[in-house]
């Protein structure tokens, strides 16, 4: 790192609201990401009163995000108590980092770093680079009320837990929403860097060298007949360096409880090309019917393993009733890996990916005349 970059590191200097770029501007109008694939975000009227948000919005008032540094406490991500030196309250959102050798830290902050200037968005308001260069977070002023978050991940070691992750994440309230109301997930995405190289082409095919972009949701299904709770992870793939169909299912047994993971369960999904978008291109606006996604999970058959045993598993018929499902959290970002744990020659190639994310949100129709979402009407 050069001395000039070190001089721009912010650790103790406080910033007043008046000096912060957003505080010098008028309050922006509401923005809704369009439903059409590739359609740029556009300013619209505020959401209808009949629509509610499942998670807090990642808006201009929520950019003072918290940082997870890779640890776990009480079976949950251990969030650093240190906040970035920026005005405003702590955001409900946090940066999740798993299996990162050099995690990003809130006290290692740059302002208006010219090295991260975007052709469309200009210089970032703030940046959080790792000393090793393996990760980076840049926060840009967006073209509407939603800021743009730039995530970068390079390298990563493939372990039993997967590769290295950098995510934007948020938890639902204790009274997490059920899924029997029409539920839509929207987000703006753009790949700005997509570099993957392998020493042996087979490492690209078998996933030793891999980059993935996806949104994940933690869910829980409660069987009303028994009260038994089944946790599940639902992942919606957005881009994959293998360029093939990333659909797969996993199940592990723990103390007699199945823990489910499904990736890309809905048929006919279209992924973003795994390539850097044109510099001046807007973010692609994506929308997903979460009712349909969960219905595909409810119908799926799994092969569960654990304790030396393997067995087929299906959720009971009550899983088709979406009132029995709850959303726990949302996470969106990158997973990368270019080496294999405990292998004789662990390094298999190189990978570096950068992603821009704007306004990830889950909306539900709560109007009195809304249709009830079910797995026979509106499901997969």
Write the layout of secondary structure elements.
Elements: H1 3-8, E1 31-32, E2 42-43, E3 51-53, E4 66-73, E5 76-79, E6 94-98, E7 110-111, E8 126-129, E9 135-140, E10 148-154, E11 157-158, E12 164-171, E13 183-198, H2 202-206, E14 210-222, E15 229-240, E16 248-254, E17 257-263, E18 284-289, H3 290-299, E19 302-306, E20 309-313, E21 325-337, E22 339-340, E23 349-365
Parallel strand pairs: 4-6, 11-22, 15-17, 16-19
Antiparallel strand pairs: 1-2, 3-23, 4-5, 6-12, 7-8, 8-9, 9-10, 10-23, 12-21, 13-18, 13-23, 14-15, 14-21, 16-17, 19-20
CATH class category name: Mainly Beta
On the 0 to 100 scale, the average pLDDT is 86
If helices are DSSP runs of H or I spanning 4 or more residues, what is the number of helices? Answer: 3
Return the CATH architecture: Sandwich
Distance between the first and last residues' Cα: 51 Å
In short:
The protein is mainly beta. It has helices spanning 3-8, 202-206, 290-299; strands at residues 31-32, 42-43, 51-53, 66-73, 76-79, 94-98, 110-111, 126-129, 135-140, 148-154, 157-158, 164-171, 183-198, 210-222, 229-240, 248-254, 257-263, 284-289, 302-306, 309-313, 325-337, 339-340, 349-365.
């Amino acid at each position: 790192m050069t001395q000039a970059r070190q001089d721009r590191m912010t650790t103790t200097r406080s910033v007043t609201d008046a000096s912060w770029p957003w505080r010098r501007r008028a309050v922006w109008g509401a923005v809704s990401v369009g439903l059409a694939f590739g359609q740029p975000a556009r300013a619209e009227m505020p959401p209808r009163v009949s629509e509610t948000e499942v998670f807090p919005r990642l808006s201009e008032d929520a950019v003072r995000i918290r940082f997870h540094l890779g640890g776990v406490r009480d079976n949950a991500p251990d969030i650093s108590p240190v906040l970035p030196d920026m005005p405003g309250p702590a955001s409900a959102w946090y940066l999740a980092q798993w299996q990162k050798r050099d995690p990003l830290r809130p006290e290692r902050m740059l302002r208006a770093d010219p090295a991260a200037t975007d052709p469309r968005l200009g210089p970032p308001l703030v940046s959080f680079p790792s000393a090793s260069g393996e990760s980076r977070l840049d926060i840009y002023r967006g073209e509407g009320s939603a800021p743009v978050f730039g995530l970068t991940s390079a390298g990563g070691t493939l372990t039993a837990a997967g590769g290295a992750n950098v995510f934007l994440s948020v938890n639902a309230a204790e009274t997490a929403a059920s899924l029997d109301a029409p539920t839509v997930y929207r987000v703006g995405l753009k790949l700005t860097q997509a570099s993957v190289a392998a020493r042996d082409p087979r490492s690209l095919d078998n996933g030793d060298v891999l980059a993935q972009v996806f949104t994940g949701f933690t869910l829980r299904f409660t069987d009303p007949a028994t009260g038994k709770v089944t946790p599940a992870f639902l992942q919606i793939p957005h881009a994959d360096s293998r360029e093939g169909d990333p659909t797969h299912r996993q199940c592990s047994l723990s103390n007699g409880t199945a823990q489910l993971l499904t990736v890309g369960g809905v048929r006919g999904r279209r992924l973003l090309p795994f390539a850097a978008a044109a510099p001046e291109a807007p973010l692609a606006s994506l929308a997903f019917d979460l009712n349909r996604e969960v219905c595909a999970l409810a119908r799926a058959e799994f092969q569960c393993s654990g304790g030396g045993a393997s067995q087929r598993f299906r959720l009971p018929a009550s899983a088709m009733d979406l009132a029995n499902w709850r959303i726990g959290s949302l996470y969106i970002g990158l997973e990368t890996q270019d080496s294999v744990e405990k292998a004789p020659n662990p390094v298999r190639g190189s990978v570096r990916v950068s992603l821009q994310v704007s306004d990830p949100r889950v909306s539900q129709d709560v109007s009195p005349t809304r249709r009830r979402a079910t797995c026979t009407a509106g499901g997969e």
